[in-house]
Amino acid sequence: xxxxxxxxxxxxxxxxxxxxxxxxxxxxxxxxxxxxxxxxxxxxxxxxxxxxxxxxxxxxxxxxxxxxxxxxxxxxxxxxxxxxxxxxxxxxxxxxxxxxxxxxxxxxxxxxxxxxxxxxxxxxxxxxxxxxxxxxxxxxxxxxxxxxxxxxxxxxxxxxxxxxxxxxxxxxxxxxxxxxxxxxxxxxxxxxxxxxxxxxxxxxxxxxxxxxxxxxxxxxxxxxxxxxxxxxxxxxxxxxxxxxxxxxxxxxxxxxxxxxxxxxxxxxxxxxxxxxxxxxxxxxxxxxxxxxxxxxxxxxxxxxxxxxxxxxxxxxxxxxxxxxxxxxxxxxxxxxxxxxxxxxxxxxxxxxxxxxxxxxxxxxxxxxxxxxxxxxxxxxxxxxxxxxxxxxxxxxxxxxxxxxxxxxxxxxxxxxxxx
Length: 419
Fold this sequence. Notes:
By secondary structure, the protein is of the alpha/beta class. The protein is 29% helix and 22% strand. The chain has two domains: 3-35 and 287-415, Lyase, Ornithine Decarboxylase, Chain A, domain 1 (Beta Barrel); 44-282, Alanine racemase (TIM Barrel), CATH 3.20.20. The strands form three sheets. Strands 4, 13, 14, 15, 16, 17, 18, 19 and 20 form a nine-stranded mixed beta sheet that branches.
């Protein structure tokens, strides 16, 4: 295995006889049995990340951000480790319930919650995070009993504009004055929620948010005589997709937040709150590797040679949407020396369907397997059927066995929606 990729591939990844092995299963076996593209999830990595959160934040509720990859099988694995789920739609709630996640470990989000979502959340005993004053009244009307209020502190995270969530004018949460009014109307509310953004690769905004929430709690105590029993700090820990990006371990990220909370909370004379974290990407992203089959190899200019694969922006829209960067290796020739830099292009009818702008590879040949690591989050979850290309399957590997957890769509599946 190229040494530079060891930090990006799942915990069980290795090279045997020149071939990438994931969870004890050879890449060629996975491609032969399930076809390509296929997203392969390493169960050991998912469990390891879950345990790291629980160890770093003992006593906290860790609720998986289901939107990163809604999967009954993955939710079951995480529930076995003691995690809950953060859901924002009726569909995500159903995934979590079918996985057996207990109601008391469910956190309900969304800036426009359906009445059905509120009813089912209340019936399951889930914690509802209120996102507006209007929503507060609707939730009370259905006799919901467990609430947090989401407050927007006006802090700009150092991340892509599309995944910032705590800035002034955010569509999420209530401005501070409205949050005070929400608590005034709902004094039985358990606590506060704040989430600064996603794919965070720097600590600054998160630490500022912890300081801000302690000061806001003091304001609530002074104005209303109310103190939060629960603080939900959201999620957001980023992962690096290429080695040039910075990275923090789960222990470093959670430890930093806890350290700041333990510093500021006592200074304000506030009692220790129950904590909630909502990681998504940092639980499953590095656990996932997408395998593609190489098609054509075409020199487009003196500086660019394209390697075309049998997937693209329909199964991973992040490069097109967020300018996300990835790297890759030839899974069936993983120990060969690189030849030159290549660009990896998808098969879709868009010039923007380029998965990787530049990656050094051995000279690719038609039929080779290309492995793209760190694709376990926001790939299949955001996939489409553009160009009428069916979505790929997902497979869970463990101890030399591979289990299909999401079947490949077919063209017949797409046509079944036609009337």
